[in-house]
Amino acid sequence: MNNLKVVVIGAGIGGLTAGIALSQAGYEVEVYDRVQELRPVGAGISLWSNGVKVLNRLGLGAEMAKIGGKMERMEYRTKTGELLNNITLSPLIHTVGQRPYPVARRDLQTMLLAAFPSEVKLGHKCIGVEEDGKGVTAIFENGHKAQGDLVVAADGIRSILRTHVLGQQIEPKYGGYTNWNGLVPADAALAPKDCWIIYVGDHKRVSMMPIAGDRFYFFFDVPLPKGTPANPETYKAELKEHFQGWAAPVQSLIELFDPNEVARPEIHDVGPIDRYVKGRVALLGDSAHATCPDMGQGGCQAMEDAWVLTQYLMTTNLGVEYALKRYEMERTERANAVVQKARKRAEQIHGKDPAITQEWYSQLAVEKPTDVTDAITKVIMAGPLR
Question: Rounded to a whole number, what is the distance in angstroms from the first to the last CA of the chain?
């Protein structure tokens, strides 16, 4: 189908990737976001090979390599620092044909914005859509209307347009834990610079990953009741208490980070939902399948969505709605499975059933490193780009 006009709502990872892919397909694309200034949510993200392959396919491979961290292996350690497992990533990279990249969200967003050929229209909050025989119109709070052949709803975990697609409101579900995350200068005293290191114990987790610019992306996970108050002034004291007695690098990390530069989300997910499409409106990314970050697949699934949507539009002459139905069939199966798997993983890691978490700690100490990389490989290879 030629000469389509696409209206994309949301300029996060999914919305921008969709904007780039659809523009490269020759379509006219407008991207809108409700915020006045684009600021990425969270400090970093681990992009596994399936997400990276989409960016490679869009011609962004060289840029991705510049901003991604060179992560050669993973280490699991006990809370006091004893090595549980040392996992080289080379078997994974060899099998899937692409290395993963931990990356700063700001760097990724800057790269995607530069690759999108038009300007993102900020300060436009989409409050609804109207369809008629000729197309679909996005309606904004400020009175603006944008007409197109389809609307891509990449408006995030608290999506307004999800309610339109489903005919009912779906509330995000609390994943059971809070996550503090940020960036610090890389330092061999914290972790080796080519290694993703993860400390586990007491249903909590501390992680450090190398990213470009000689920095680590770090996070702390703590199971807490939903709605626990957040105040940057007390972050250090709280984390010192939560991680009392943990290994020296964990204590150093708490001393080092700047609390005013730290994000502290309560982790939520959405779904699985059985519909991503209604007429000429398609949900994409977190609006369809917000995912607990315990598998590092949230951003990757949004990128896959963007790629698959574009391919189905390009390869049919049977109309927009037909292409969107095919997108829905493929993506509900793929992304919903990831949502469920990541939720199960979040519960396993964070002590929803303490016996299961204890079993996981024991398993980490004895399982073969290739069992870990094989499991990750399986998730990556189930995507659209081999």
Answer: 25
Helices (H), 285-368: 286-289, 298-314, 320-349, 354-366
Q: What is the CA radius of gyration of the chain?
A: 21
HSE at residue 314, side-chain half, CA atoms within 13 A, is 13
Helices (runs of H) and strands (runs of E) counted in the chain = 13, 17
pLDDT score of 2 more than 90: no
Amino acid in position 113: L
Q: Residue 378 and residue 386: Cα distance in Å, rounded?
A: 11
Let me know the angle formed at the C-alpha of 73 by 348 and 342, rounded to the nearest 5 degrees.
25
Q: Is pTM, for the whole model, over 0.85?
A: yes
Closest listed residue to residue 150, CA positions, set 17, 32, 323, 299: 323
Query: Given this model, what pLDDT does residue 42 score?
Result: 74
Q: Does domain 5-172+268-381 have CATH number 3.30.505.50?
A: no
Structure tokens at 83: 């090595």
Closest CA to 59 of 8, 14, 116, 13: 116
β-bridge partners, 113: none
Which is higher by pLDDT, 112 or 37? 112
Q: Residues 145, 138: contact at Cβ < 8 Å?
A: yes
Boundaries of every domain in the chain: 5-172+268-381
Q: How confident is the model at residue 39 (pLDDT cuts 50, 70, 90)?
A: confident
Using an 8 Å Cβ cutoff, are 258 and 92 in contact? Answer: no
Q: Is 13 left (phi over 0), alpha (psi -120 to 50) or beta?
A: alpha
CA 362 to chain centre: 28
Sheet holding 150-153, edge to edge: 28-32, 5-9, 150-153, 281-283, 277-278
Each residue's pLDDT tens digit, 345-360: 999 999 999 999 999 9
* Segment 175-180 mean pLDDT: 97
Please say if the pLDDT value at position 148 is more than 90.
yes
Query: Nearest 5 degrees, angle CA 169-CA 170-CA 175?
Result: 155
